[in-house]
Amino acid sequence: MLSSNLEKSLHRALAHANERGHEYATLEHLLLALTEDQDAVAVVRACSVDLDRLRREVLNYVDSELANLIAAHGNDAKPTASFQRVLQRATIHVQSSGGEQVTGANVLVAMFAERESHAAYFLQERGMTRFDAVNYISHGIAKAPGHSETRRGQEKTGSTPAPGRAIDPRDVAERLKQRHAFSLLNRREELVSSKTILNKGVALVILILVAPLCALIMLFIKLESRGPVLFVQQHRSFNNAAIPILKFRTRYIDRADPSGRQRIVRADPGMTRVGRVLRATSLDQLPQLINVLRGALSLR
């Protein structure tokens, strides 16, 4: 079911995590491994992506941003839920289209559904889209000049029985089941996309409505203490991706807590007077609407 190149890439992804002592193998480990996968590399280059630059960016992220995954024990790394979802999605897609092998190219396409992951972000940042990848895989049409290919025998393997071969009803039932599963998966992705659009629309409206209040808050913060009115605090998403969260600054600049690990206590000397009011009313969270517009957060 899995191509030999993809099997090597999966082993390589786990090796990247194990070499760094990471407890989990993430999508970013997988993307790093796919930069050496023959099938995935062909798609990346056809989509006019600078492969070397992409690899450097992912490698830097894995080395610098995933340090919190380092485990004290020496057990092998385990694939994250998103890692497994991508493989499952790629497998269902190939099976539903009558294919026989899942390749690194199919896995690359499946990554785009994990919108909150840095892996998908790195690909999109380099100008690559899911449509570009599918267009090349299915039709040989490349975004980069000179990389297009003529696809021959594009009729789906296994979709037409060989002459003289009887159709097994169980094969038909299994194929229909796979197509139904893939249809449900596509439906889920459409719902996620609709929710994202709705979130951004609502966040924009709220930001416009509270803009005067935000301006007043920024003025009070500036009048009371020196430093920026906003600060960035690092949070982790469900798949352990780092998300920079914007908030109004509620502490003195030399006592800021960008990690978010410092415990809040009553009469905290590091808290400004304006900050106490903002914390008590949760108004310090208003800038997170900007994160929603960026697609990094979702409205509950």
Keywords:
single chain; mainly alpha; Double Clp-N motif; 2 domains; 4 strands; about 55% helix
Please characterize this protein's 3D structure.
There is one protein chain. The chain is mostly helical and 300 residues long. The chain has two domains: 4-153, Orthogonal Bundle (Double Clp-N motif); 196-294, no CATH class. The protein is built from eleven helices and four strands. The protein has helices spanning 4-19, 27-34, 38-46, 51-65, 81-96, 104-111, 118-125, 130-139, 169-224, 273-281, 288-294, and strands spanning 24-25, 78-79, 230-236, 242-248. The strands form two sheets. Strands 1-2 form a two-stranded parallel sheet. The two termini are 39 Å apart.
